[in-house]
Amino acid sequence: xxIRLSLTVNDESRELLxxxxxxxxxxxxxxxxxxxxxxGCELGECGTCTVLVDGAPVLSCIALPADLQDSxxxxxxGMADGSRLHPLQQAFAELGAAQCGYCTPGILLxxxxxxxxxxxxxxxxxxxxxxxxxxxxxxxxxxLDAVELAALRMGQRPVRAMT
Amino acid sequence: MTDAxxxxxxxRIVGQPVVRHDARDKVVAATAYAADxxxxxxxxxxxxxxxxxSARIVRxxxxxxxxxxxxxxxxxxxxxxxxxxxxxxxxxxxxxGPLRATLHVLAEDRVRHQGxxxxxxxxxTLELARDAxxxxxxxxxxxxxxxxxxxxxxxxxxxxxxxxxxxxxWRIARGDVAKALAGANVVVEGEYTTQLVDAAYLEPExxxxxxxxxxxxxxxxxTQVIEHFRDVAEVLQVPQxxxxxxxxxxxxxxxxxxxxxxxxYLGLLTLKTGRPVKMVWTRQESLLSRAKRHPxxxxxxxxxxxxxxxxxxxxxxxxxxxxYAYLSxxxxxxSTVTAAGPYRVPAVEVDARxxxxxxxxxxxxxxxxxxxxxxxxxxxxDRVARALGMDPVAVRRVNALRxxxxxxxGQVIETHVAIPELCERAWAALGPPTAARAPHIKVxxxxxxxxxxxxxxxxxxDWASAWVGxxxxxxxxxxxxxxxxxxxxxxxxCQIAAEVLGVTLTRISVHVSDSALTPLAGTTTASxxxxxxxxxxxxxxxxxxxxxxxxxxxxxxxxxxDLDMDEDRVVTRDGRTLAIAGLxxxxxxxxxxxxxxxxxxxxxxxxxxLATGSGKVFPDYTFGAHAAEVEVDTETGLVRVLGYxxxxxxxxxxxxxxxxxxxxxxxxxxxxxxxxxxxVVENGINLTTSFATYLIPTAADVPDVRxxxxxxxxxxxxxxxxxxxEPPIGPPAAAIANAIEAATGARITRLPITAERVARALGxxx
Lengths: 163, 766
Description:
heterodimer; A: alpha+beta; DNA polymerase, domain 1; 2 domains; 5-stranded mixed β-sheet; B: alpha+beta; Aldehyde Oxidoreductase, domain 4; Aldehyde Oxidoreductase, domain 3; 3 domains; 30 strands
């Protein structure tokens, strides 16, 4: 059985007809070609597939679009402003917070939601906010550094785009 | 190129924490991982796996699955042209002899571990492929299995294969151990147990295969070894030059993508159907069936004199290979060579064995056998120090290897050993001690060192090649068959070429990991890519530079040795410059090549006789020291790591940011090994096939890791770098165990160090 979906994805309204049992992750990757959102465990246990639904982090591998009618979805593709990186993306690139990069989209979005909620989080608050996003490469130290750097810059002035 | 460039002050780009060329792609998710690829008309594949750890296949019927609408093909062992994957294990093991480790692509009459592949399906959709897998009818007759190495080696144990269950054995005997132990002031005995763990990269095994327009079977996948194109060709029985492997940027590897994963299946399915095929394993499949790190039982007797100097070690190792050999014999060799630690030990006996069982297979994982031994030898040394009232730094200082010393295996250490400095710096980096926050909370600190080979075993005659060439506009291209697992392998090659050829980093394009189009550079394993591909690019760039500067000297007058290449120009000593594009135009006019293919050969040697301790096994080693501060809740056994510092002598940091990343990430993987990770297997059945049950560290579980990067200027890599991919995972488990004893007096000898085990050691549980 198919369902007609109406979603706003990265500020664009999208109308879709998809099988009702498809997950949000599958719809994003297969129907909308937004392959920046990655598959890690398909069970909601690793955080790799995190996207924002109405600004809040959601595990897209266990979310059904049928439950998300008319909601506003942000994926990693929606973070940069044209060629200008989001301050989180800029800080992650500069500090080497992405190694293999596979967990990076989910972590960027979780951090974006955190900074929207708390523009000056403590390091402990960042740790707790990211505790649902597994990373196997970095040991997290540079990720925490990058979120702190982005928060600092977002509180100060516009960031010069990375060349 | 003069030697002066090898000194740090003279370096311009090497040694700088530059932003990697792939960093921007990764933060905007432009990097196309293996599962992100798709082609028109692509089929989706799924694998049928054995539910039993030991069984005979009585009946295997695929008719119903094959007849399903949308199913393109169902394959079983009889459909595989050559149903064997082989790994050569060169050299002799002490007891079993030369090995040719083999496994079936698809199970024939028997299955030997849970998750063993039995059949393949390709269908129009993934859902259909999975439905078809369910429709394959298999009748199994469960047979007796063996589930511990002890049971496997007991008389009358059911053989996992046709032969006995002893897969390999290595022995070393050096000096008179019995006499030395008898004369020792202190003898410490310990038995340690390490567990089965999983690489647990976030990107599951995945790839897409197609028959390209030139008829070549092309497989684009996440792999640490593009040279497996040859293995695929053997399985398909096609010429090796008709299979191409394109390695993607990996979503993590850690050794788990060193053996063949999806490529043979994809090759078979695309060959049989003529259509593109995608295979992506689920997390459950990955955790169930991929080869893991060997669990070990390690028995040590360590004797020391009154000064704390170790006089002898008697060591017995027993490892579980699981159902297939894979790289077990070599993993055991690494353990054997490193068993006595980075210390002077005049008398050593090592008896190391690895046995087949019906457990999940084990093979390469970051650390590769040089890891399990750290937990034992560093626990032992700490106990020696405690018995003699010595501090952890002092006992390591008096015992540390020095240049010119000989390892028990007979290898002479030819480079600087920074163990004393590393211990002091790691210990100091913990800062002032933390006060216990409650009476029942105890705080303590522990130290642990390690040494890890980098580069392959010398009798494998390792080599790597690279191509470096200028385009006419002065931009540079590097081609090198080096897979990038996320550690910055490709980016470091750019820095090395930029250093030698004076090219701005942003004007370099690097192409890696394509068995058809990039010169082969070997595996991204064994902490070898910076060493091997780095040296290949360095050598190639230097040879290219020599040719170009010959032309430049003719244009500018004077001697080529007086010229430098910097900021996309040739520069003379008196400050005159020549733009690179002008030099390249002249090269074109006079017929001097603007590109070069070079090969780096690692120092090679012959197989050693381990028993008599006859010589060199590895090119060189990377040394490290980690310090941990922990708090232990003496009412619950819960351990929290308060502070962590990890020091390694990396010879030269090509990119300090990448080096720190390797150290921090490796240390946290090591903390996972020490504190929480365990693949729980009961009678061959894996009970931890999800991230809800197989726990790896989260951001909330571990402290910041302070990376202490020491550059001795001695190493065999480019600009005297040493390998740093594997070394940082080694010491954490021992550092934590030593810190717990310092805090509470309780010694933990079994990994992982869970709250329950600590509570038992504290006498809180019956």
